[in-house]
Amino acid sequence: MKKALSLVMALLMVLGCMSFAAAEGKEVINVYAFTDEVPKMLEYYVETHPEFNYELNITIIPTTDQLYQPALDQALKAGGADAPDLYTAEAAFILKYAQGDMAGYAAAYDDLGIDTANAIKAADIAQYTVDIGTRPADGKVVGLGYQATGGAFIYRRSIAKDVWGTDDPAVIATKIGPGWDKFFEAAEELKAKGYGIVSGDGDIWHAIENSSEVGWLNEDGELYIDPAREAFLDMSKKLKDNGYHNDTQDWSDAWFADMKDAGEKKIFGFYGPAWLINYTIGPNCGDTAGDWAICEPNIGFFWGGTWLLANKDTTKKEAVKELIEWVTLDCSETGLQYMWANGTLAYNENGTKDAVGSGTVMAMSNGELDFLGGQNMFDVFVPANQFANGKNLTQYDESINATWRDAVRQYTGGAMTRDEAIEYFKMTVSDTLGIDVAE
User: Fold this and answer.
1) Burial class, 424, CB count within 10 angstroms (exposed 0-12 / middle 13-18 / buried 19+)
2) 241 in helix, strand or coil?
């Protein structure tokens, strides 16, 4: 196994997926991540804390082509000096490492010496992130994040004023919600003025997915379609048949074009967390910056996030504890989250502010953004995090979601009937993942 692992690592080095930094005389902490975001944070900590007598040995493997999980799994199973001491997992597959097949390799934060329950309470960490990072087998927290990814409705001020005579977030929240009936009433009013309410059906999917009572698997481990998720078929078709959107697919060029008024018709809004503003809409919005605002969504949800986990067999528990606490639980002005929320990290050249895991930190931070016309985004995102539900995920969500989204588009595009789309979805999941279908 170790020989095979060394061959994998050698190959990844050739491909440029790995970087190593280790100085003589210092112990090494192995870090596995799928982007450079967490490694940059940890490197900053090491650079600014000279008393921290450790070097980081960082392995970055992108999630593209599904390379990250197999490499991480192999490294955890092989163990030894090259095994990761710290590793990251994103929302699409965190359940596998916190609650699923690989959860046994994670150290409980308590076992690292962290007073987890009291620290979570003091930091006011959103419950959904705690639920996701809690291992059911022993009820222990094994992972927490640094971002808060509770969702809001992100909308255009100028369009709101044209349709309703105001861009006040408190008023717009009552136009689009609560519930989906109000959303579609707003869609009709926007259509009368020549606007689309969203860019494509993907813009409502995450709000629907993460507000369902049950995830893709029932208590018996069988494939189950929650009524809220099945309703996406009908809502997606309603959007398309009534011309309420530009029928784009999220992450496509057409989707990005709608952020800067370059689509078929101007689009009113997008559902998403703070990262969607900072890293997606912001860089693609053209000259619309400052013409945006956020309001409470018509239904609570979250989208995305990264969790930090430790190897139960790490021999550097004190150092690993120090890093985890600084990233996920430290509420001081020198903690990662305060600097992240206020855009003051030295290596963050753009000064980007972001919603963070700690409600305590956001309450003491300035969340005003020029992009939002000076609005304080924390006024919306702090309560949004409390409405998000983290109990409807499974370790297979990434694959099952892709199949479901394909089936829905087959239906709305006319290639399948509603019943055929559901049957196609069930058969595909069963064939590819070997999951039985609930009766």
Assistant:
1) middle
2) helix
Beta bridge partners of 294: 154
| Spatial contact of 131 and 140, defined as CB atoms under 8 Å apart | no
Expressed in angstroms, the distance from the first to the final Cα of the chain is: 41
Global pTM reads 0.85
Give the separation between CA 52 and CA 14, rounded to whole angstroms: 31
- Token pair 């369009």 is found at 159
* DSSP state letter for 187: H
pLDDT digits (tens, 9 = 90+) for 32-49: 999 999 999 999 999 999
DSSP secondary structure letters along 23-90: -TTSEEEEEEESSSHHHHHHHHHHHH-TT--EEEEEEE--TGGG-HHHHHHHHHHH-STTS-SEEEEE
Angle at 72 between CA 397 and CA 136, to 5 degrees: 55
Query: pLDDT tens, 235-290?
Result: 999 999 999 999 999 999 999 999 999 999 999 999 999 999 988 999 999 999 99
292: three-class secondary structure by DSSP: strand
How confident is the model at residue 281, as a pLDDT?
96
Which helix or strand (DSSP H or E) is residue 293 part of?
Answer: strand 292-295
